[in-house]
Amino acid sequence: MESRKKYTIGTDLGGTNTVFGIVDFDGNIVCEDSIKTQDYPQAEAFVEAGCICIMALVDKVGGIELIAGMGIGAPNANYYTGCIEQAPNLPWKGTVPLANLFNKRLGIPVKLTNDANAAAMGEMKYGAAKGMNDFIEITLGTGVGSGIVANGQLIYGHDGFAGELGHVIIDRSENARLCGCGRKGCLEAYCSAPGIVRTAKEYLKNETIPSDLRSIPLEDITAYAVSKAAHAGDELAIKVFEHTAELLGKACADFAAFSSPEAFIFFGGPMKSADLLMPTIIETYNDEVLPVFRGKAKFIVSSLMDRNSAVLGAAALV
Amino acid sequence: MESRKKYTIGTDLGGTNTVFGIVDFDGNIVCEDSIKTQDYPQAEAFVEAGCICIMALVDKVGGIELIAGMGIGAPNANYYTGCIEQAPNLPWKGTVPLANLFNKRLGIPVKLTNDANAAAMGEMKYGAAKGMNDFIEITLGTGVGSGIVANGQLIYGHDGFAGELGHVIIDRSENARLCGCGRKGCLEAYCSAPGIVRTAKEYLKNETIPSDLRSIPLEDITAYAVSKAAHAGDELAIKVFEHTAELLGKACADFAAFSSPEAFIFFGGPMKSADLLMPTIIETYNDEVLPVFRGKAKFIVSSLMDRNSAVLGAAALV
Known about the structure:
- The structure is a homodimer of 318-residue chains.
- Chain A is of the alpha/beta class.
- The first copy, chain A, contains nine helices and 13 strands.
- The N and C termini of chain A lie close together (11 Å).
- At the A-B interface, helix 7 of A face helix 7 of B.
């Protein structure tokens, strides 16, 4: 890398907004701007609008000669090909060679990976995983994602799609929940924000415990409402978080048998209730894990929750 | 490495025998010999006897100056510390600094890892995984072990104990089987050779299908007997293998969500019945795996089954 390079561009491409940030080598977001992803039904028009937005930022910091490259975190992104493939929440169908499109337009190296991998990269370079060679980042949100780092490297797998721990089967029983992926019993169906809401609705239907949540129409219940109730001491809401945490603890026990990470790092909205989740995650994990791993792993809330970790992580790809 | 070095020493340390082999850089075992592990209740005496055995082999090939180093595959072995820790099937209690003991005595570098990791190393250097950067080696025997390779490197985890896929939970129901590790529902409790025997005994007890196995006293049934019966067309024995294969296929579907390997490579005694196991493993895997992985992974029987893969794999550590 030439000594003139001082920044990278980190891009957090989401279903609603796409945020572009100019990041210096210390992990500070110097400036950022965004466009509305859904405004561009054609990928080419999206890239065009994105580049206009980016160039305005680049000009602010001194020009494209100072930019080492661009990293993009996006759903259904393939690191090896630089393509987004069949992303259900993005406006573009089929396979979009996004890295290539930006590279042609900007003339700098462009790397693409999925959003959870980008979060793990950000965590390793700027966050709670600084100095760690082996950790698993688990992102809880609309889905459950993961970025797995072993031997100091992200695991991409032979096809670029490794690290789909939200789709490990946590319930193999007949009445396991249907997941958005079309299969049954995935961790995501239970521990994503919508999964937490499903658990709350099941408890409200099947249990007789009184709960403040009963005053909300079932279809209006959100993970935030459950969290608020739990923090106010609502017994049913607390049970919902305990159940969620137990499943996460059990899942992590299986993950340990795979890569024996130094730490599990949790990121995302539901972790605003870390006080409700973490003690049970840790207790369940240590109860359930193979004895050789017992008491060894750290359980940490991402230290990038308040910063734009997806932008930082994407910037760290370059 | 000096150009004079022509060989490494590969050591397969098992509960009964320890085999030492001199391996050339093309993966040929030039000569080998063994000692009885159980004859040495003290680790120091074991190392002493081992070194006498090794030096006789080394003299045959031209002296210690030609040896680049020594690799040892052993149960409960920690790659980072070079120690064997609390191995239930070895005569030495506590922590044994085996790599260090051999290094002091022989004056060459010594690396130690667990037997399944050694098998994966051998597979990558000399076997079916040649040229692969991402694969999972699954060893079926008295237990179920694994060696996971991602980005062309073995995953050791932060503590050296990663890759315990035999202890991923495949059955979370109330009546899941007790595993040797003290927990319930581990893959090993179903898909190891003793696990296959347990399944056969359960079927003989709970099913009314006629079977040639009914002529054998329950306590004398072996995995080999079940395999023989299945190959002779015995319906119950075939069902035992089908069930084993289904569980392996389901487990591999979860493993794919982790590291998305190019191939799953199976090693060990039960794979002598690969014709009975593989079609159902592959079918179940592709039925159960996340759509993005469907039809991508190869399922391969180790190409080192007839050679001493543990010796070769251990040799490949150096």
